[in-house]
Write a structure and sequence with these properties.
The chain has 11 helices and 7 strands. It is of the alpha/beta class. The structure holds iron/sulfur cluster.
């Protein structure tokens, strides 16, 4: 972001997608593009920004969508011949929106227990405990270790808003490759808010660093310190791969706590 700004680009940080809509409303002579990225957690506010822009009749607001869905990724990781994952902690923030009804069939299919887990330190310990208990008892099921925020069904109004604005699509995951139906994109009826169409940038794709082994780390095959770029070419300030970008990424956590 800073390098784009240094080059003269007008890049701003907002606290909510609706703040980007407000910016477009206040600046009718400028085109405002919001980077709508993330897992299922960030999808509801992102689709609400589109619905709000539509309601306001804005012609200068669009979103650049790069959304991913967890269940197809779990299916791909567990279905890989080289898979070493024996249990899953399911991210509580994702399940708070989507529920966890999609996971019992995956747990059954791959004979792998899963625990819905929150993000506070005690939540994580609780999720690990649940997963280990299920493994030791040989039980293949999905346990909800985060019941204060997550229900089986999830937030139905949020899911309905997502379904109204987004549709499922194939998505390329950094380090893993294409996973069928693992992403979301805007439905054609919202094309006027699709930055890829408005600016014709749909064919632009980021190149992955040949040094990065994030795909193997995500699949449990290697640890971050096995990467030759770890802490050298790749740091949280200058990340080369997805797992170094946010603080909960495996490489970023290893960098912070293992040095
Ligand atoms: S340390 Fe950086 S380059 Fe290496 S695997 Fe992690 S994200 Fe990729």
């Amino acid at each position: 972001m800073f390098s784009v700004r240094a080059g003269g680009g007008d890049v701003r940080v907002v606290y909510s997608p609706l703040d980007a809509v407000a910016l477009a409303e206040k600046n009718p002579d400028k085109q405002v593009v919001f980077f709508a990225i993330g897992f299922e957690t960030t999808a509801p506010p992102n689709v609400m920004s589109v619905l709000q822009a539509q309601r306001l009749g804005l012609k200068n607001f669009s979103i650049l969508v790069s959304h991913v869905r967890v269940p197809p990724a779990v299916n791909t990781i567990l279905g890989s011949p080289s898979n070493r994952v024996q249990g899953f902690l399911l991210a509580g923030h994702v399940c708070a929106i989507m529920g966890y009804w999609e996971y019992p069939p995956l747990a059954e299919k791959f004979r792998t227990p899963m625990a819905v887990t929150g993000f506070e330190p005690l939540d994580i310990v609780q999720g690990i405990l649940k997963a280990v208990q299920l493994l030791e008892e040989g039980r293949v099921e999905v346990s909800n270790a985060y019941p204060r925020a997550v229900t089986l069904e999830g937030l139905k109004p949020a899911q309905a808003a997502i379904q109204r604005v987004f549709m499922e699509c194939d998505h390329k995951w950094r380090g893993i490759g294409m996973i069928p139906m693992s992403g979301w994109r805007l439905r054609p009826e919202f094309d006027e808010f699709n930055a890829e169409k408005r600016f014709d940038v749909g064919s632009v794709r980021a190149e992955e660093s040949p040094l990065c082994i994030a795909g193997e780390i995500l699949q449990g095959l290697k640890k971050p310190h096995h990467c030759p770029a770890f802490g050298k070419e790749c740091t949280p300030e200058r990340p080369l791969g997805a797992t170094m970008v946010s603080s909960e990424g495996a490489c970023a956590a290893y960098y912070k706590y293992k040095g």
